[in-house]
Amino acid sequence: MKNIPPVHKVKGYGTGNMYIVEGEELVLVDTGVSRDYRLLVDRIKSLGRSPVEVSHILLTHFHVDHAGAAAAFRRLSHAKVYAHKDDAPFIEGEEKIESIHKKGVLGRAASLIPNTAHKYTRVPSVEVDEPLEDGDVIPILHGIKVIHAPGHTPGSACFYLEEYGVLFTGDAIINSYHFLTLPTVGFSSDFGEATRSVCRVADIFEDGGLWLICPGHGPIVEQNPREKLLRLRGRIMRKGRV
């Protein structure tokens, strides 16, 4: 295994994964729902660090189980918030878009209770300090590359720690069933685009460079992450989805 900085996964109340990456400062990749704030604070303290050391917050997309506690952490630590520019208006509360769509079993079921669904998917707005574009490199942890992976949301993005081969996928690629899968159709704004994004991400790592996949849901992929990503692409292509 390549030597990588300490990456700590925290599973939130909303089932989404949050990640604490340790360096001279602390970097958060996603922040979970609002009540996950306390989980993150407690985990940071258990590492012998202080929550005020959080200097950067990277949001893979605007959904509440990934961006819900970003505002609280920004108030606490004055951390800079990063997100792809296509999701920034929804994170900042300037524009509205539904998180649940009438597709798939879960999406159709949630759509039957729209008021409840809206209540539990509302994200406390937070300013995005750095709206990102595909290919941008964030100058922390020796460089974090932005890979735009739209479909789950318009601005879904993966974050790639280039020097260490660590890929944070948000919900663009998840690991809910112990093998890599597409995002849930009922929570994706454009499922067809989401499948194409997965194939594009796999193409990037065709020749290697991937040591760890940290998904938005499910276990971290430590064994053969590149091979598992390429197998996911193969399944998509065999089913004719691209």
Notes on the structure:
The chain starts with 6 loop residues before the first strand and ends with a helix. The chain has helices spanning 36-46, 64-67, 70-77, 88-91, 104-111, 114-121, 191-204, 225-238, and strands at 7-11, 17-22, 26-29, 54-58, 80-84, 130-132, 137-138, 144-148, 157-161, 166-170, 212-215. It has a six-stranded mixed β-sheet. The chain has a five-stranded mixed β-sheet with strand order 7-8-9-10-11, with no helix packed on it. It has one domain (7-238): 4-Layer Sandwich (Metallo-beta-lactamase, Chain A). The chain contains eight helices and eleven strands. The chain has 242 residues and is α/β, with parallel strands linked by helices. The protein is globular. β3 (26-29), α1 and β4 form a beta-alpha-beta unit.
Percent of residues in helices comes to 25-40%
Continuous helix count: 8
Q: What is the arithmetic mean of pLDDT?
A: 89
**Main structural class:** alpha/beta
CATH level-3 fold name? Metallo-beta-lactamase, Chain A
Label the overall shape. globular
Look at the structure and name the CATH superfamily: Ribonuclease Z/Hydroxyacylglutathione hydrolase-like
Question: Quaternary state, please?
Answer: single chain
Strand content: 15-25%
Largest sheet: 6 strands, mixed
Computed over alpha carbons, the radius of gyration is 17 Å
Topology, pairings included?
Layout: E1 7-11, E2 17-22, E3 26-29, H1 36-46, E4 54-58, H2 64-67, H3 70-77, E5 80-84, H4 88-91, H5 104-111, H6 114-121, E6 130-132, E7 137-138, E8 144-148, E9 157-161, E10 166-170, H7 191-204, E11 212-215, H8 225-238
